[in-house]
Amino acid sequence: MKNKDLQIRDPFVFPVQEKQLYYLFGSTDKNIWGEGTGFDLYTSRDLEEWEGPFPAFRPDENFFAKRNFWAPEVHSYKGSFYMLATFRRTDNELLGTAILAADRVEGPYLPHSSGPVTPAEWACLDGTLHVDAVGEPWMVFCHEWTQTGDGEICAMRLNPDLRGAAGEPVRLFSASQAPWTERLASKSTPERAVYVTDGPFLHRDEEGRLLMLWASFSGNRYAQGVAVSPGGGIMGPWVHQPEPLYRENGGHGMLFRTFGGELMLALHAPNRTPEERPLFLPVAEGSGGGLSVRLLREG
Question: Does the keyword Hydrolase belong to this entry (predicted)?
């Protein structure tokens, strides 16, 4: 299959050098707003032709969620593979990010944390793993606009075994603090407009700065933005690029390097179901201060 044939949201690419294979994970249910069936993966040697789908995770009858299976990310940590993914809990109907684990990148992934790691009373989504300069693991995630009105990006220290939180969450910034974001009229709350935060992903550039990709809305269209922590610390302060990195109704991006060493941005576009497709764009890191990621071309 080609990219145009893959209906997938929140694409996440895990390159495996020794196999010369790219593993593509993402929200793969045809109706991601409904019942959750699990997560599939696809493999490719060139980011153009894909094989699959192959099952990466399937819940059993005792799993804590039945719908809204979103945004799986796969990270290698201490010799194992961990999938961070969002699910809607059946006990309180709130979204939360849980951690699954596997011995192989392709899975099968099994529950590792006891339900969501994010606070039980919060509506949270899109958790990503960040290991800081001293080797301590963190989850960076969104505290959703459904509770806050102005969506937040938060960070929370994890236990070394990734089974739970080791500290309280800390707000890094709110969506409205970025100069490019705009309020979005919510269908569920038409009496108020909200600011959205989606899909944080962290990347350390060659100068040691910490970059955060995250998505919101600009001009009433889904857009991909970038914030920078110049000192390289997870607590910031975070400086926002003045304009979105990608504004053509696409986002929830992540960065990876090709086997040739090129830095690539993966995102989904357009932001409409069932039309969403994976998009892979080359990017370049900025030098000095100011803008740290520069889009080279679109398609």
Answer: yes
Q: Are 281 and 298 in contact (CB under 8 A)?
A: yes
Contact 95, 102 (CB under 8 A): no
Which residues touch 200 (CB under 8 Å, ≥6 apart)? 126, 128, 140, 141, 142, 153, 212, 213, 214
Q: Count how many Cα atoms sit within 13 Å of the Cα of residue 180 in the half-sphere of its side chain.
A: 22
Pair of tokens at residue 69: 């299976």
What are the sequence ranges of the domains in the chain?
3-295
pTM above 0.90, yes or no: yes
Backbone φ and ψ for 5, nearest 5 degrees, come out as -95, -10
| Domain 3-295, CATH number (from 1.10.3720.10, 1.10.287.110, 3.40.50.300, 2.115.10.20) | 2.115.10.20
State the Cα angle at 73 between 264 and 79, rounded to 5°.
Answer: 100
Extended strands (E) in 5-150: 9-16, 21-27, 39-44, 51-57, 65-77, 80-89, 95-102, 110-111, 124-131, 137-143
d(CA 39, CA 44): 17
Q: Supply 98's token pair.
A: 């849980």
Residue type, 263: L
Q: What is the pLDDT of residues 8-20, one digit of tens each?
A: 999 999 999 999 9
pLDDT digit string (tens) for 78-120? 999 999 999 999 999 999 999 999 999 999 999 999 999 999 9
Side chain identity, residue 296: L
How many CB atoms are located within 10 Å of the residue 104 CB?
Answer: 10
